[in-house]
Amino acid sequence: MAFTMAQKSSFVGRTAAFRPAVGARPLAVRRAPVVVKAAGNEVTVEIDKPVGLKLEQSTAKGGGLVVKGVSGNAAKSGIKAGDTIIYASSFFGDELWPADKLSFTQTAIQRAPSPVCFVYVKGENEKVNVKRLPKKAAPPRFGRKLTARQQELASHICVDCGWVYCDTTPFEDTPADYRCPQCNAPKRRFVGYDAETGKKSGMAEGTVGTIATVVGGLVGIVVLAFLATSV
Fold it and tell me: pLDDT for 184-196, tens place per residue?
């Protein structure tokens, strides 16, 4: 079973188009659609959506998700067909989860904010036991480059795509119908953001509902699996 990741995005390798309140002067943040870091045989990449990966469950000894097709932003990252994804972003992008199950990982990738973080090994995975990998904190957003002035003004971040608000107009003074210039999320999907530490503060409206949906879905899967084994 193959899974192709594709999601609309208004920000792929372009300068973010800010929508400040009247009289505010926009500050453009430039970011490449792909950022890559390598450590030994493992490569970590941040890829803006739409990602452009076609994945299948790996049958190799170590497990993971094998790359069957590459296009768009994924092609720019250096990932090639035959490589194996061993970690992928979690639902909220704050963690990296082992990519041991196709269906679960595909759901997390769909829900994760852009850019999506992946860790992969080149070729078949014969050494890393993906099923035994622990969850771990996502790396700092090494692709986000803010100038000193932008870091000074940065106050909020969109939890859906990671876009940083660093306008001269205080975020609280933006109109009620303000939307994220990158993913069009409403104002309620922004939380406080510290540019120096990269940490977010507060919880965006609607997050609790999403968590409840995810937990409910997982509980349902467990119940169905129990019933199936009990028959």
Answer: 889 999 999 988 8
